[in-house]
Amino acid sequence: MEGKALAPIIEVKDVHKYYGNVNALNGANLRIFPGEFVILVGPSGAGKSTLIRLLIREEKADKGKITVAGRNIRRFSYRDLPYYRRNLGIVFQDYKLLPNKTVWENVAYALEVSGASDEDITRKVPKVLQAVNLRSKEDAYPDQLSGGEAQRVSIARALIHNPKILIADEPTGNLDPEASREIADILEKINCQGTTIILATHNKELVDRMRKRVVLIKAGKIASDQKQGRYSF
Amino acid sequence: MTQIKRIIKQAFSNFIRNGWLSLTATLIMTLALLTVGVFLVVALSTNKIASDLKDKIDIVVNFKDTASEALIQQLKGDLMIRPDIKTVRYISKEDALNEFKQRTSIKEEIREIVTPEDNPLPRGLQIQSVNVSEYDYVSEVIKKPTYAPYIDSSSYDDNKGLIETVNNATKFVERFGLILSAFFILVSILVVFNTARLAVMFRAKEIEVMRLVGASDSYVKMPFLIEGFLYGFFALIIETILIYAGVNVIDSISSGTVFGQFVERVIPIYYSEFWFIVLIEFIVGTVIGVGSTYVSIRKNVKL
């Protein structure tokens, strides 16, 4: 891969994370380069979600070092976090949309919090909604959407800052196969435009179809790392 | 500036979209303010009525004709030293006669017996005090050997019972009112605090999402605090309308009854103190609304 000549955009070095006596991550090492599409697979409880929580700094590693875009994210103070997160796109299994806001407002909110101007918002929101094919639903509330649509809103929101990295934790976990394929297509499209994508998933069909770099996490460690991998553990 | 505008806009939009929650919180705040409001009206009225009553209580010391003018002035001087004694008015024989003539409660024939030439009415001092307990001091002074032989009578003993009743009633209202209002304010705080806590807990997930999309601490908190302010503000409007209407309804149904006499005295006090009452309630509402929301956010949301 030509990207390997560059410095990694994410580097996970000997990371450990404990929950009481449970060792959720046990010396994980991983390097991800700009523009890569990395799929994290592994049995439930293997440490995928823990790794993602550490990457978005919902939690801190107990040992080891995580560097994102050259910065040690463990050092971020509580006040730095909002700024860090504005540079990441994050997509969750349960969408995490604000229930009292319309599709448009949910996407616009991510821009509002960063102090974007009204003109900026009116210019960017329609574009990103267009990209996930949701212009027609912009006035709907989250509970009026199908799972696939809600997830697309969540992706639109993640993309609004034009992030260098997009992290998706089981984005197809609640979706039917067709909606899942749609989400996968959107993610591939985003990746083609240069965004680094980290996707944690259990969706075998998706992984096998995409033929991307597949990182298998087992018992808190990276068990295998294949360039054009398949879903197997 | 844009951020402030957005925060305020968000608070209003949340207030409207969380209709039921806002309505519940506002109504509970209304009840809390209602207790505060009723207490304020009653407390202000009793205070005013009691002080009016105290103003009407006075002691009149009547002198025998043997008492010299100098002695009367000396007593007046002795009494005026006391800071609590408001006025000491000298009543000459002529003044006494004029007042006597104006008393319609006395029969015409009797009034005519007394003339300026044959005036048995005594000279006197009319004493008014800010503090009714001061009348005990007056009573002691006039019993001194210097004055006692020249004093014909004093109204101290007649008024003593009334003075004590007013004294006790005022003290009772002050103490009881204070305890009652403290109790109601405490209950309101607990109730509103719990409502705010529920509101925040109910939306804890929302707050988490806001943080995850990169909202800063104050950007997350401010709309909630403004919502808390709005609960208090709207509650104040509803409560003021209710008390205003209530006072007028009570006025119209109680007129002509014994209770009506009390109400007649309360209403002008309510009107004259209207803005003071609103201001106090505004402060109470804001402190409870914003304060309990703030504490709820701090306690229930890991930001």
Please outline the helices and strands:
The complex is a heterodimer of chains A (233) and B (303).
Chain A: E1 10-19, E2 22-32, E3 37-41, H1 48-55, E4 63-68, E5 71-72, H2 81-86, E6 88-91, H3 103-112, H4 118-131, H5 147-159, E7 165-169, H6 177-192, E8 196-200, H7 204-210, E9 213-218, E10 221-226
Parallel strand pairs in A: 3-8, 3-9, 6-7, 7-8
Antiparallel strand pairs in A: 1-2, 1-4, 4-5, 9-10
Chain B: H1 2-17, H2 19-56, E1 59-63, H3 69-80, E2 85-91, H4 93-102, H5 108-113, E3 124-129, H6 134-142, E4 151-154, H7 156-202, H8 204-212, H9 217-254, H10 258-272, H11 274-300
Antiparallel strand pairs in B: 1-3, 1-4, 2-3
Helix pairs in contact in B: 1-9, 2-7, 2-9, 2-10, 2-11, 7-11, 9-10, 9-11
Structure description:
The complex is a heterodimer of chains A (233) and B (303). Chain A has 233 residues and is an alpha/beta fold. Chain A has a single domain, classed as Rossmann fold (3-Layer(aba) Sandwich), CATH 3.40.50. Chain A contains seven helices and ten strands. In chain A, strands 6-7-8-3-9-10 form a six-stranded mixed sheet, with helices on both faces. In chain A, strands 2-1-4-5 form a four-stranded antiparallel sheet, covered by helices on one side. In chain A, β4 and β5 form a beta hairpin. In chain A, α3 (103-112) crosses α4 (118-131) and α4 crosses α5. Chain B is an alpha+beta fold and 303 residues long. Chain B has two domains: 2-53 and 166-300, no CATH class; 59-154, Alpha-Beta Plaits (2-Layer Sandwich), CATH 3.30.70.3040. Helices cover 75% and strands 7% of the residues of chain B. Chain B is built from eleven helices and four strands. Chain B has helices spanning 2-17, 19-56, 69-80, 93-102, 108-113, 134-142, 156-202, 204-212, 217-254, 258-272, 274-300, and strands at residues 59-63, 85-91, 124-129, 151-154. The chains are: A alpha/beta (233), B alpha+beta (303). The interface between A and B is medium-sized, with 26 and 20 residues.
